[in-house]
Specification:
- With 255 residues, this protein is α/β, with parallel strands linked by helices.
- The chain has a single domain, classed as TIM Barrel (Alpha-Beta Barrel).
- The chain is built from 10 helices and 14 strands.
- The longest helix is centred in the last third of the chain and has 11 residues, at 208-218.
- It is globular, with a radius of gyration of 17 Å.
Length: 255
C-alpha cells in the first residue's frame, strides 16, 4: 500500500492566494506561483489548487493561470474550480494537471464524472464534497462556497460517486475550515465506512499531530490542510511551510 500523502490545499480568489475561515472572510496570504515554488523546494507530496471564484461567478476556469501553475509545479497537481464539461476537464489535463476536482458539477451532474473518467482515466477524477454539520449531528452538502445547500443525502451521494467511477473523494468540513481545531473525526469515520475509493480529508488541521492521528486512525490516502501550511504561530503570521522528511515519515508511518 502506498503511504498517505500530505497535501497543501491552496485557494485562489481574485488572482491571489487566500485562506478562508468557515468559507468566509478570505485573507490574502500571497502569490500562488510563489507558494508553488516553495512547495517544490520542500518536496510536497501533491498540491490541490481550488479557484473559489470560478463556479461562484459562473465562469470558465482560468486556463492561463492553470497553465502557469502546472508549468511551475514539480509535484502531482490537482485543480478545481469552474469545470462543467468533459471538454474543459480534458483541456486542463492537457495543460499538465494530473487530476481535476469537481464540486458543484459533481453534485449537480454526477454523470459528468463518469464521462471524464472514461476519457482521461479514473485516477484523474476527484469529487470534492463540502459538508456542514447540523445541530442534530447529521451532515448537509453545500456548493458554491457554502452558499447553496444541496438536497441530497451524504451517504447516498458518496455511493453514487463511487459507482460512477470517481478516482478519489475529497471530504471538506465547512465548520472546521480555517479553524485549526482538528479534523471532524465523526465525519471522517462516516465517509470511511461508506466508500472504498481513496479519500482525502480537508478542514481543521492545526498541527502535525492532527495529520498523524488522521492517517493512523482512518488510513486515509490524503491528509490535506490549508491554514497549517500557510500560517505559523498563534498570531497566524503568513509563512508557507511543510513538514520535513523525518516529520513526514513520523506522520505516515512510512519506512
Amino acid at each position: 500500500m502506498l503511504r498517505s500523502r500530505i497535501i497543501p490545499c491552496l485557494l485562489v480568489h481574485d488572482g491571489g492566494l487566500v485562506k478562508t475561515t468557515k468559507f468566509k472572510d478570505p485573507k490574502y496570504v500571497g502569490d500562488p506561483i510563489n507558494a508553488v515554488k516553495i512547495f517544490n523546494e520542500k518536496e510536497a507530496d501533491e498540491l490541490i489548487v481550488l479557484d473559489i471564484d470560478a463556479s461562484a461567478q459562473n465562469r470558465e476556469p482560468d486556463y492561463a493561470m492553470i497553465e502557469h501553475l502546472a508549468y511551475e509545479c514539480r509535484m502531482p497537481f490537482c485543480y478545481g474550480g469552474g469545470i462543467k464539461t468533459a471538454q474543459q476537464a480534458l483541456k486542463i489535463i492537457k495543460l499538465g494537471v494530473e487530476k481535476v476536482a469537481l464540486s458543484s458539477a459533481a453534485v449537480e451532474n454526477p454523470a459528468l464524472l463518469q464521462e471524464i473518467a472514461q476519457s482521461a482515466g479514473q485516477q484523474s477524477v476527484v469529487a470534492v464534497v463540502d459538508v456542514k454539520r447540523t445541530l442534530l449531528g447529521s451532515y448537509e452538502i453545500y456548493t458554491h462556497n457554502a452558499k447553496r445547500k444541496v438536497k441530497a443525502d451524504l451517504l447516498e451521494l458518496l455511493g453514487k460517486l463511487q459507482q460512477l467511477g470517481v478516482g478519489e473523494i475529497v471530504i471538506n468540513s465547512i465548520d472546521r475550515d480555517g479553524t485549526m481545531k482538528g479534523y471532524d473525526e465523526a465525519l471522517v469515520q462516516k465517509v470511511r465506512n461508506a466508500v472504498d475509493v481513496p479519500i482525502t480529508v480537508l478542514g481543521g488541521a492545526g498541527s502535525l499531530d492532527d495529520l498523524k492521528n488522521l492517517v493512523a486512525t482512518y488510513k486515509v490516502i490524503g491528509a490535506s490542510a490549508g491554514s497549517l501550511f500557510v500560517f505559523k504561530g498563534p498570531y497566524r503570521a503568513v509563512l508557507i511551510n511543510y513538514p520535513r522528511p523525518e516529520e513526514i515519515q513520523e506522520i505516515t508511518g512510512a519506512q
